[in-house]
Specification:
Mean pLDDT is 96; it is low at 315-319. Helix 6 (184-197) crosses helix 8. The N and C termini lie far apart (44 Å). The protein is globular and about 60 Å long. With 319 residues, the protein is of the alpha/beta class. The protein has helices at 19-28, 48-58, 73-78, 80-100, 138-158, 184-197, 218-231, 248-259, 283-288, 296-310, and strands at residues 10-14, 34-36, 62-65, 105-109, 162-167, 169-171, 202-206, 212-213, 215-217, 238-240, 246-247, 264-268, 277-278. The strands form 4 sheets. A 6-stranded parallel β-sheet has the order 2-1-3-4-5-10, with helices on both faces. A 3-stranded mixed β-sheet has the order 11-8-13. The protein is built from 10 helices and 13 strands. Bound molecules: guanosine-5'-diphosphate (GDP). Guanosine-5'-diphosphate (GDP) binds next to helix 6 and strand 7.
Length: 319
């Protein structure tokens, strides 16, 4: 069923330093294509003229658009201008330049936070724009919705082969290990690892521990992105996830079991819960033949091992 071939193409992973982009770069090593990346000092994604010139010069055939300003619930809630402006600008610049320079195919990565706060669960692609957004991540969601709409508009008006995927919450190697600004998995790995090293009996969770989230291993997302790039060419975006969710408390308990810490969790309820539940309906992608191959325990163990090996901290230790 493959409709698009990566073999022999010049493929740009925009955002190759991030968790999603670095996973895509690793996955592309198994394809017979020429991968191209640019560091921040070589290419400022916030400047249209830089992006135009760089893409024309490198003769890019294919783009994985994984570049974004990202962060967890508090980063989103406290830095809305950056999340809205940076993401709108980066995606507009790259999508416009991709059209101008005749890119053959582009895949844009969005986020599950595009869906309404009270969307019916599991969330089907059709739930987009059917209700109000979750206030803690509204800026990021608006930017990502605009990215989907840009891909659709350039497809409709100019016939560009631009598609979008909406990944659920991710974890894996290269996550942002930043206790205040990062996402929940990275924050919990840091906190529980530190509690184990210090023999501390408690770890604090933000909010009530009751919100439900779905977690996808970054390497599985990368595999899905390559699959979609090769096999899908329609206007509707595709959800990417496992279709399985858990409460934040359950997530914390499962990470604690992997790290080998036995203690109790407390709740800092002055911090926000965010969306009450976020789980994707992944039937569209499943019907095309892709399902996430990695179990939560396997992926999380790999994410934790990466953290221990790569992120020195006050409680760094070997396991
Ligand atoms: P979200 O999925 O956009 O809400 O982003 P996050 O990954 O940042 O947070 C997911 C859920 O985990 C929210 O309900 C948070 O309140 C909760 N949570 C519990 N402890 C933490 C923590 O230490 N850091 C973060 N980022 N979230 C936490």
């Amino acid at each position: 069923m493959t409709s698009f071939y990566l073999a022999g193409k010049r493929v740009w992973v925009a955002g190759h330093r991030g968790m999603a982009g670095s996973a895509i770069a690793r996955r592309l090593a198994r394809e017979n294509c020429e991968m191209v990346t640019a560091t921040r000092s070589e290419l400022d994604l916030l400047r249209q003229a830089h992006v135009d010139a760089w893409m024309a010069d490198r003769k890019i055939d294919v783009v994985f658009l994984a570049a974004a300003t990202v962060g967890g619930i508090m980063a989103n809630a406290t830095r809305p201008a950056e999340f809205l402006y940076d993401n709108l600008t980066i995606e507009s610049n790259i999508i416009h330049a991709a059209w101008q320079t005749g890119v053959k195919k582009l895949l844009f990565l969005g986020s599950s936070c595009i869906f309404p706060r009270l969307a019916e669960q599991p969330m089907r692609e059709e739930a987009l724009l059917t209700g109000a957004l979750e206030p803690t991540n509204e800026s990021y969601a608006i930017a990502k919705i605009a990215g989907i709409k840009l891909c659709q508009a350039f497809r409709r008006q100019y016939g560009c082969d631009f598609v979008s995927v909406m990944p659920t919450n991710l974890y894996g190697p290269g996550d942002r290990y930043d206790a205040e600004g990062g996402h929940v998995v990275a924050a919990l790995i840091m906190k529980i690892h530190a509690a184990k090293a210090a023999a501390s009996p408690t770890v604090e969770l933000w909010g009530t521990g009751k919100p439900r989230r779905e977690f996808l291993y970054s390497e599985d997302l990368a595999d899905a992105c390559v699959f979609v790039m090769k096999n899908y060419s329609e206007e509707m975006f595709l959800n990417v996830g496992t279709g399985v969710d858990m409460t934040i408390l359950e997530l914390a308990q499962r990470i604690a079991a992997i790290i080998g810490w036995t203690g109790t969790f407390t709740f800092e309820t002055s911090k926000p819960d965010g969306m009450p539940r976020k789980v994707m309906d992944v039937s569209r992608l499943r019907n095309m033949g892709w399902v996430a191959p990695t179990s939560f325990e396997t992926g999380m163990k790999e994410a934790y091992d990466w953290y221990v090996a790569n992120v020195p901290g006050p409680y760094a230790m070997t396991t």
